[in-house]
Design a protein that fits this description.
By secondary structure, this protein is an alpha+beta fold. The protein contains 4 helices and 11 strands, in the order H-E-E-H-H-H-E-E-E-E-E-E-E-E-E. The strands form 3 sheets. The protein has a 5-stranded mixed β-sheet with strand order 3-4-8-6-7, with no helix packed on it. Strand 10 and strand 11 form a beta hairpin.
Amino acid sequence: MNELREKTLIELFKALNGLYGPTYECKYYPCHFEGQDCSFCYCPFYPCLICDLGEIKVSSSGNYIWSCKDCNWIHEKKNAELIIQTLSSFPRQQLIEGDWMFYNKILQELLFGEEIGEYYGNSYSIMPIMLKKDFEVIDKAEFLAVRVEDFDIVNVRKIDNVKDAENEILIPLKVNNKLYGFADGKYLVCLLDHDSDNIEKTE
């Protein structure tokens, strides 16, 4: 288990034990917005690969990272409470052993009320999120095939056919403010909505 994931689980179990809410004594508070909920400084769903909440970038050391610096979703009190309530329903051992797919499917349920992802052989696409936006059908498009190991992004490549994916996570390709991808048997393009609060959430 990598160090970041270990810190994430320690913090998760603190929240499940009732240690949650704003952390006024933190020297970085408020790192997102005044009155933010600090139950999850380390997001249990990182890297979520949900295009509304962040994007893949290359770090100064040359590694691929999921940048979610503009994501406030997990710091909204109602969302933090819903996450705590949902994850509390799972045995602790299952939360410790849960892989990226386990947590991502929970996140999809929280955000959209259902699992939106779909399998293509041994690869998994979360590009159907584009079907929840205003999209246009186009002739062809490239999208990203992301390899995730132990919650780390280890490789990213562009492909234009889901059949070329091999045990990867498929997500839209972001170009400026547009997303390009493939869902429901069609190549799609749509405008990226930067306001994560507009994501449909279950109550």
